[in-house]
Please model this.
Amino acid sequence: MPDEAALAALRDELIQLGRVVVAFSGGADSAFLAWVAHDTLGRDGALAVTAISPSLAPEEEDDCRALAEEWGLRWQAVYTDELANPAYAANDGDRCYHCKVALMDVAAPLATSESATVVLGVNVDDLGDHRPGQQAAAEGGARFPLVDAGFTKADVRSWSLRLGLRTWDKPAAACLASRVPYGTPVSLGVLHEVAAAESGLRRLGFRQLRVRHYGDLARIEVDVEELPSVVARRTEVVAAVREAGYRYVTLDLEGFRSGNLNAALPPHQEGSE
Model:
């Protein structure tokens, strides 16, 4: 049973902030935070904003719009252009830092106009990972209410289920650039290929997946339990990925691992996406 005190603590954190702008990516964490903020502070006190850019999968943008409508959130799309920053496009270990700087560049002025604080759906489990984006957000004045209230990822999913939020079991997501190995430049074309390949696989019914980009080779990750299904449907899978522009299609037999590309980082930077 979810801890009643944890939700009460989260509501208290939000009440102390007074008014918030929630960075709303549509994932389980940010969706839960957006819903609780809206429920606690009311429509006027909570604004959910979704950063739209080529690094956001089209399905995620659509789902953010749908969730905002379903839940009655006050919602706004904001547009970022992180690819215009050469430091982001270079795709080194601090790529996520530059991405969050771009987010804060558009979210912070909104928060100022709302007399509000930017809040992100970071949970306690995220703190030990290599997530330079958290540093950029904190430097920009953002707060992490889920951390302050002691929420883990399991707590978020448990409370989301109890509250009837359909995002309770939504597969983990990350920006499309996380599919590109560090050191390989991120470009609009690369992001479009990854997005198209993953969209094609989702249309085949695969939920938790990544298409890792290695030039003209795509490496597919799905949950281990779904590996036999990928092999059984290999003709459809290959067709979907090749249609996105890849020449070679491979399957990672280790299955889905969030952030496994971080293994190439120096030991002090290792973590998950």
Notes: Strands lie at 20-23, 46-52, 74-79, 117-119, 209-214, 217-222, 248-251.
